Each structure stands twice: as C-alpha cells, then as structure tokens.
Amino acid sequence: MKTRSQNFWSNAPRYVVLTALAVLFVLPFYLIVRNALMTDAQITAPGWIWLPPSPHWENFRALFDDHDNQMRTGLINSAVIAVVTLVFQTLFSSMAGYALARIPARGSGFVFGLVLATLMIPGAVTFVPAFAVMAYLGGVNTQWGVIAPGLFSAFSIFLFRQFYLRFPAEIEEAGRLDGLGYFGVYWHLLLPNSTSIMTALGVLTFIGSWNSFLWPLVIGQDPSSWTVQVVLSTFLTAQTMHLAQLFAAVAVAVLPLIVVFLVMQRSIVEGATFSGGKE
C-alpha cells in the first residue's frame, strides 16, 4: 500500500502539467487586468512591470466618458441580443425537439434529416444569402436582424430531440389520461422537467451570442447597433490607439462571461457533456 508521500511523488508530473495549464489559462486575464490599470506609457515601457505601481481605476471612468467609443451602447446591445437569443433559441429548439421526438407525423424523419443536413453546411456558405434576406426584410442596423438567424439552432434541436426520446413515456401517458394534448404535455410535463438541458444549452447560447463578432459586424453598420465585440474592434482600427482604454474595455467585456462562468459552471460542464453525447 502506497503512503501519502509515495502517492504525491507518483502524481507529481500530473500536478506539474496541471499547474502549467492553469498558469496558461490565467495569464491572459492577468494581462488584461494589469494593463487596464496602467497608463499607456507604463504598458509600452521596455522594462516589465508585474503589477501597476498605483492602479489607475480612472481608466474605466474614462472609457465610459469618452464619447468617441460606443462602449455603453455596445454593452446594452450585446446584453439584449444575448438574452433574447438565449430565451427564444432555447424555447424554439425544445419545441422542435419535442415535436420530432414525440409526435408521430408523416415526414418527421425527413424533416429531422434536413435539420441535421444544415449542420454539414459551413456557416460561411450561408453568410451572404442570410445577409441578402435580412437586407430585403429591413434587418440591417437593427437588433432583430442580428438575433433572427440565431433563433434556429440545428445542434440544439438535435440535443433536445435526443433528450426527449429518453423521457419516460409513462409520465406522458399520464398527462394524456388527464386530457392534455401534445402542447399541454410539452408545456406542463416535459418543459418543467427539462431545466437541466435548457440551462446547460442556455448558458452556451448566451456565451456564443455574447462573443459573436462577424454577423453583428456585417448587420450592424451604424454605431448605434454595434455590439460590444464590434466596439472592441474599433479600438484596434482607430488612428490613435489608447492601450489602457482598450484593455479596460476588454476587462468590462469579459466580466459578464466570468460571472456567468462562476455562477453556472456546473451547467456549462453539463452542456459540454450533452454536446459530447455522453448523457
């Protein structure tokens, strides 16, 4: 039987690797916070400064006081788009998944095949047609133009269908004996028991929507419709680059994601499990 000391030394290589990976993971966050609290001169100084000698918290105030950037607008737009996409994509995907899993209709298998086929099409292929449709419908420079294409997720529909296929049929039959139809069974029985997968996919949807860049950049051509990711890109393309403000903006932009990760990390792990088909 191995002693505690022997176990420690036998696991030492694993600890070293995990520590190195943890440092690599934390390093970008350290650089963001460090540079956000320094001046431009300190950031570009030849000598490395590990921590700001005196934190410049005013960089954050200057970020929001500077009317040349649209940080406040970007945060509001991103929050609205991410929350609306989260709610409606999750709801629509669960309804579609339930219909494909539980309602015996002619052609449902063919429809499910079409849904899966969309997973095989690269997003770049549908980018221009989607923009043409949104432009025709008047969705350019609008929040709904950014949101609409994200309301359909073949991947979420597939996961919800697999989840509902494993749902106990006895509960569904009991609901039918009480006079519930398909929608009643879904709304009163299946939906309340789907909180685990809905929370997991909802968190992943929120993170994906918040980090989305290319589609909001193309649709939101007016500064009033920019998301926070688009606003961050303007710091890099500006004629005069304020590094301290840039890193302060990055710190503000990632803060909601860090909060979501800390609060919902268990759901994120469950989402990764669902995504890997291990549930």
Automatic annotation (TrEMBL):
Stored PROSITE patterns: ABC_TM1
Primary site of residence: membrane
CC annotations in GO: plasma membrane
Lineage: superkingdom: Bacteria
Localization of this protein: Cell membrane
InterPro entries: MetI-like (IPR000515), MetI-like_sf (IPR035906)
Transmembrane segments: 12-33, 75-98, 110-137, 143-164, 185-207, 243-264
Any one Pfam family match given in the protein's UniProt record, by short name: BPD_transp_1
UniProt-listed GO biological process terms: transmembrane transport
UniProt membrane topology term: Multi-pass membrane protein
Record has Transmembrane helix as a keyword: yes
Keywords assigned: Cell membrane, Membrane, Transmembrane, Transmembrane helix, Transport
Secreted is among the record's keywords: no
Family: Belongs to the binding-protein-dependent transport system permease family.
PANTHER family on file: ABC TRANSPORTER PERMEASE PROTEIN MG189-RELATED, ABC TRANSPORTER PERMEASE PROTEIN MG189-RELATED-RELATED
This protein's name: Sugar ABC transporter permease
Native organism: Capsulimonas corticalis
